[in-house]
Write a structure and sequence with these properties.
heterodimer, A: 326 residues, alpha/beta, Glutaredoxin, two-stranded antiparallel ribbon, B: 742 residues, mainly alpha, Rossmann fold, 8 strands, 58% helix, globular, Dolichyl-diphosphooligosaccharide--protein glycosyltransferase subunit STT3 (chain B)
Chain lengths: 326, 742
């Protein structure tokens, strides 16, 4: 019985061994080319590495990283791609899962780009094995299109999803020792500097006017919709279609970057007029000067507020209220 | 100066009484105005619960009133989140329901035959009157001017930023929470001013009440420690700070832990760690302060300060380590997304999908606050003049709340109270300067004029007052005009924007008369009357609470979005082909599917517009099966007409929305009025669902899920057979009816 099972397993092994011998060599050959980083390919080696039969997974990033192609996405993604390859190659590979990571740059592989009819870069192709335990019936490569900036984690989870079940090496970001050291150094330098210069710095830190200015600027920024610009990434200004510039976006929940700055300026003028009227004017000793100051600040207040209402009316069509000047 | 009759009333003892009476009358009037300006919707429509969440609160309150408090506490609700159910008693903030329950029982005890629905509808306006009162107290603590408090109360009473969440019928947690927020802050300021255990304990008590009422209590949990921390940094440690903070923290934390939903979060969650950290720091500082009294010597004191900073730093590192290692839970998603604004969109699409979690554009600020928005910075500036402890609080609150309000529309609500305080400070200082009749400085505002040498730049010279009557008249007229404009604005906003119940839509007929579109209630009543009591309804989660409340039918998902996977399941069913969706529907016992469709009426809040969120949420769980990209055309457009992608046109949601819609129009003339596009000639075909009900204006469409075919065919074949098409290939299938799953 034992002999029989041994025999059967032998029979099973022989054909696999026969056809995988050259293939294993190919895997080793390519793997030895670059133990850690992705393998650099050109047209011929691309053909060779993806040729059937293959007993390994291969992920090829078709990219155009050179500066003259002007592909910012490619260049930004390059270090992330190397990170994925490094994490995989350094990590412990489970149950004989074999995978190669390769890069084909446009400057080395124009023929491949033409053959695949690629208009955009980068594109990631993952070829499943055609033989071996993980072989798939459908051996067409899986394609990942980059629709925008993407992190290594997102792409790595995508790749993992299309690999066979089982544990995979985790994505490891290398610890940036340089950064830790520099942060600590800067921190200590700042503390030292602060201790030495404290007689000069403390009065500034304790300056009430400075804090008041900071708080007011923060409040004006936030209440004029700066966070909206930040989150939604709105354009600074836009054309009005007639060659001019439209400063105010149409619609109630829409705005331009410049628009919020105008609004912040309006709010600031109104606030400072209020502050002047409440705090500065009563401290003017000269009667005439005081009278003039009241009229000027009062008019500024009225004019600005009226302008603000006018702007608001533009944003919100049915708004019924207005003040005289505008 | 001649004695006039008014002087008799306004001076001396009787003067104080008169002023007290006047103040009382004014406050009562403000409260009345606050309540009555929130009644637009009741007068125009009827006494009805609004929106979505209030329907759940209403349902929970009814349960509380019918079954008593203990059974409410242990309530397991098997009619939501089918088939999971929800431990409702342990996963809600009970403050609101208990409050209305208590009011109900008190009124019943006093033999008022009042319906619980009316209490729920009128709770928010009632509490807004109290909020105005609390606002008066808070502002009086901050400002010495007697007019500031009254102005603040008036602002708070009618400002749209608060009305938006407290009109009659919006029976939501915020209805009582804003009152509690303002009142807790008042008690806190009182405590820190007096260094009194009593006020600190009261603040803790109301903080506990706040915790039981609203998840936004985290704002208080972080703001008060921040206030104390800033005071310590300014070198303002005193026994007052110590007493009030330790009292508040110890009692408040214990009180908050009594709520089952909060439980041990105060010691296990990063949201609450700042309070704990400041508590520890305060002990250190107190100890150092205590030791300092015994040991003189400059060097030793410096050593002590270093020790305090060192221990605090080590403790801080320990906290960081504990949260990294996972003993302390990380920041909760909602709270964290306030700081890292891109976080929610990538990781928690369900939070990003809610419209009130969007960032705020500037018109919304002006819309909700009108001229207070530019008085607000001026008021904050004036807080720097005296910069007492309470002013520090106002400044911190202002900066922080304006940041939050900028990030999330919903948090406009927390900004509104402090805007009222600050602008009342600014306006009252203008009024105090310009109203005082005789020349020279106002003696009442004299008190705060002994400015320290390092004060504000604009307050260095001595105050002389306004000398000419012309300036006074000019300023007063303009202020009165602004105030009138403010009142008009508030009334207009309230009546136009915040008073429609959203369950009932109002529109104008060509002749100007009002036409009420009541499709929601029509459909929910249809469900109530025509379906079995246990028929499961599937819809997108927005409508879960309303179906539970109005139709009284079990739902799959609702607005309590605790289970992302379950919501994603519904999203997948909606966004997949019928062949994929049908097994999902069968597995979840779904009897009816409800969709909202605004194409006929031009109602933009419908499901096709929300559809991309369903796709995104489903994609988060099943990235292989649902992909957002498939719903956009090659040019990246989201289309529903001839150019729509096949995935879009085969999705269940698309089919259910446009099924039979063609029959309303001439052939080839079907138009979607929301998207403004012409629809394809051929309408979609449904095989696994059948239309059960469509409301008058087609806003709600309900489909019945077909049972398995009697002959064991799949529904596509059965449909084709019924229509007389020939079967394309003969397949022999025998055996019992089986549910096909994939």
């Amino acid at each position: 019985m034992k002999l029989l099972s041994l025999f059967v397993s032998f029979i099973c092994i022989i054909p696999i061994a026969f056809c995988s011998v050259p293939d294993t060599e190919k895997f080793e050959r390519y793997h030895s080319l670059s133990r850690v980083a992705p393998i650099e390919l050109d047209d011929s080696s691309y053909e060779d590495i993806t040729a059937k039969p293959r007993e390994y997974h291969i992920a090829v990033l078709l990219t155009a990283a050179e500066a003259r192609y002007g592909c910012i996405l490619c260049r930004e993604f390059q270090p992330e791609w190397e990170l994925i390859a490094r994490s995989w190659n350094k990590g412990s590979k489970p149950n004989g899962l074999r995978m190669l990571f390769a890069t084909l740059d446009f400057s080395n592989g124009k023929g491949t780009f033409q053959k695949l009819m690629l208009q955009t870069a980068p594109v990631l192709l993952v070829f499943p094995p055609t033989i071996g335990p993980f072989a798939k019936v459908d051996d067409a490569p899986l394609r990942f299109d980059f629709s925008g900036p993407i992190s290594a984690d997102q792409l790595y989870t995508w790749i993992n999803r299309h690999l066979p079940e089982g544990p995979k090496p985790p994505l490891v970001r290398p610890i940036n020792y340089m950064r830790i050291v520099s942060v600590v150094t800067i921190l200590m330098a700042a503390i030292t500097l602060f201790t030495i210069l404290s007689p000069y710095i403390l009065p500034i830190v304790r300056n009430r006017n400075l804090w008041a200015a900071f708080s007011l600027i923060a409040i004006l920024l936030f209440t004029s919709g700066h966070m909206f610009n930040h989150i939604r990434k709105v354009p600074y200004v836009a054309g009005d279609g007639k060659g001019g510039i439209s400063y105010f976006a149409g619609g109630f929940s829409n705005q331009f970057g410049m628009e919020t700055q105008i609004i912040a300026a309006i709010y600031a003028v109104l606030s400072f007029a209020t502050i002047a009227l409440a705090m500065k004017v009563p401290r003017i000793a000269d009667t005439k000067a005081q009278q003039v100051a009241v009229v000027i600040w009062g008019s500024v207040l009225l004019g600005m507020y009226s302008f603000l209402l006018n702007v608001f009316k533009v944003k919100n069509g049915g708004y019924p209220f207005f003040l005289p000047p505008f | 100066m001649a004695e006039s009759p008014t002087d008799v009333l306004l001076k001396g003892d009787s003067g104080r009484n008169t002023r007290g009476l006047l103040r009382f009358i004014i406050l009562a009037t403000i409260a009345a105005a606050a309540v009555s300006s929130r009644l637009f919707s009741v007068i125009r429509f009827e006494s009805i619960i609004h929106e979505f969440d209030p329907w759940f609160n209403f349902r929970a309150t009814k349960y509380l009133v019918q079954n008593g408090f203990y059974s409410f506490w242990d309530w397991f609700d098997d009619r939501t989140w089918h088939p999971l159910g929800r431990v409702t008693g342990g996963t809600l903030y009970p403050g609101l329901m208990v409050t209305s329950g208590v009011i109900y029982h008190v009124l019943r005890f006093l033999t008022f035959p009042v319906d619980i629905r009316n209490i729920c509808v009128l709770l928010a306006p009632g509490f807004s009157g109290l909020t105005a009162l609390a606002m008066y107290f808070l502002t009086c603590e901050v400002s010495p001017s007697p007019s500031a408090g009254l102005l603040a109360a008036a602002f708070m009473g009618i400002v749209p930023g608060y009305i938006s969440r407290s009109v009659a019928g919006s029976y939501d947690n915020e209805a009582i929470a804003i009152f509690l927020l303002v009142f807790t802050f008042f008690l806190w300021i009182k405590a820190i001013k007096n260094g009194s255990i009593m006020w600190g304990a009261l603040a803790a008590l109301f903080y506990g009440y706040m915790v039981s009422a609203w998840g936004g209590y985290v704002f208080i949990t972080n703001l008060i420690p921040l206030h104390v921390f800033v005071l310590l940094c300014m070198g303002r440690y005193s026994s007052r700070v110590y007493i009030s903070y330790t009292t508040w923290y110890a009692l408040g934390t214990l009180a908050s832990m009594q709520i089952p939903f909060v439980g041990f979060l105060p010691i296990r969650n990063s949201d609450h760690m700042s309070a704990l950290g400041v508590f520890g720091l305060l002990q250190l500082v107190a100890f150092a302060d205590f030791v300092r009294g015994f040991v003189p010597g400059k060097h030793f004191q410096r050593l002590l300060t270093t020790m305090v900073i060192l221990v605090f730093g080590i403790a801080f590192l320990g906290l960081v380590l504990l949260s990294v290692s996972g003993v302390i839970a990380p920041w909760s998603g909602r709270f964290y997304s306030l700081w890292d604004t891109g976080y929610a969109k990538i990781h928690i699409p369900i939070i990003a999908s809610v419209s009130e979690h969007q960032p705020t554009a500037w018109p919304a600020f002006f819309f909700d606050l009108n001229f207070l928005i530019w008085l607000f910075p001026a008021g904050v500036y004036m807080c720097f003049r005296d910069l007492k402890d309470e002013h520090v609080f106002v400044i911190i609150y202002s900066v922080l709340a304006s940041y939050f309000a900028g990030v999330m529309v919903r948090l406009m609500l927390t900004l509104t109270p402090i805007v009222c305080v600050a602008s009342a400070l600014a306006l009252s200082s203008i009024l105090d300067t310009y109203v005082f009749a005789s020349n020279g400085p106002n003696p009442r505002s004299k008190a705060n004029d002994d400015t320290p040498s390092e004060g504000l730049r604009s307050a260095r010279k001595p105050e002389v007052g306004i000398t000419s009557y012309l300036s006074k008249a000019f300023m007063l007229t303009s202020v009165v005009i602004y105030l009138i404009l403010f009142v008009a604005h508030c009334t207009w906003v309230t009546s136009n924007a915040y008073s429609s119940p959203s369950v009932v839509l109002a529109s104008r007929m060509p002749d100007g008369s009002q036409h009420i579109i009541d499709d929601y209630r029509e459909a929910y009543y249809w469900l109530r009357q025509n379906t079995e009591h246990n028929a499961k309804i599937m819809s997108w989660w927005d409508y879960g609470y309303q179906i539970g409340g109005m139709a009284d039918r079990p739902t799959l998902v609702d607005n309590n979005t605790w289970n992302n996977t379950h919501i994603a399941t519904v999203g997948k069913a909606m966004s997949s082909r019928e062949e994929v969706s049908y097994p999902i529907l069968r597995q979840h016992d779904v009897d009816y599917v409800l969709v909202v469709f605004g194409g006929l009426l031009g109602y933009s809040g419908d499901d096709i517009n929300k559809f991309l969120w369903m796709v995104r949420i489903a994609e988060g769980i099943w990235p292989d099966e649902v992909s957002e990209r498939d719903y956009f055309t090659a040019r990246g457009e989201y289309r529903v007409d001839d150019g729509a992608t096949p995935t879009m046109r085969n999705s269940l949601m698309y089919k259910m929305s446009y099924y039979n819609y063609n029959s309303l129009f001439q052939p080839g003339q079907a138009v979607d009025r929301v998207r403004g596009t012409k629809l394809p000639m051929e309408g979609p075909q449904l095989s696994t669902l059948e239309e059960a009900f469509t409301s008058e204006n087609w806003i709600i469409r309900i489909y019945k899920v077909k049972d398995l075919d009697n002959l064991g065919r799949d529904h596509g074949n059965a449909m084709a057979f019924d229509k007389g098409h020939k079967r394309k290939r003969a397949t022999k299938r025998k055996g019992p009816r089986v549910l096909r799953t994939e």
